[in-house]
Amino acid sequence: LKAVAVSDCLNGIGLLIVGIWVPAAALYNLGGVSDLFHEPDILKPLVEHSVLAPWHVNFTGLFLTNVYYWSTNQVIVQRALAARSLADGQKGVIFAASMKVVGFIFLCLPGTIGLLLVRRNASISGNAFKVPKNDEVYPELVKAVMPL
């Protein structure tokens, strides 16, 4: 069990460093965080296809769905069951949940940054940023901002 904990720590540290560094370097090449908000139409597809739910769904349907997710998620449950004490279990669950929340930075933000870089015909390190296929935005962004 100790080997799993050590490897989880090392993998988590690597994921955090690279996962945050890639969007940060791409934002630097884009011009900063403020440039993300100059083109609000990049979020338009999310608004056009969203379904408005009645307010009471927040207390019934969404609550039950979230309890189901957070109670059966393997990462969360593993932290709780493998803990030495209640306090350690609580710390592990809080840490795992915070990593799920912070995941937006390295899951969604690079795609948005890549879209803006393509729209602006930006160049990174003298090379034009181009994406041949839609599902290759993140690998192209990593190749563009990571030192070789």
Structural features, described:
It is a single chain. The chain has a two-stranded antiparallel ribbon with strand order 1-2. With 148 residues, it is mainly alpha-helical. The chain is flat and about 55 Å long.
Summarize the model shown.
The chain is built from 7 helices and 2 strands; from the N terminus they run H-H-H-H-H-H-E-E-H. It has 148 residues and is mostly helical. The longest helix has 29 residues, at 2-30.
SS-based structural class?
Answer: mainly alpha
Contiguous low-pLDDT stretches (5 residues minimum) are: none
H/E element sequence: HHHHHHEEH
Compute the CA-based radius of gyration. 19 Å
What percent of residues are in strands? Answer: under 5%
Using the alpha-carbon principal axes, give the shape: flat
Helix content: 55-70%
The biggest sheet, with number of strands, parallel, antiparallel or mixed sense and barrel status, is: 2 strands, antiparallel
Determine the N-to-C terminus distance. 36 Å
| Strand arrangement, major sheet | 1-2
Tally of DSSP β-strands: 2
Mean pLDDT: 81
Summed up, the helix count is: 7
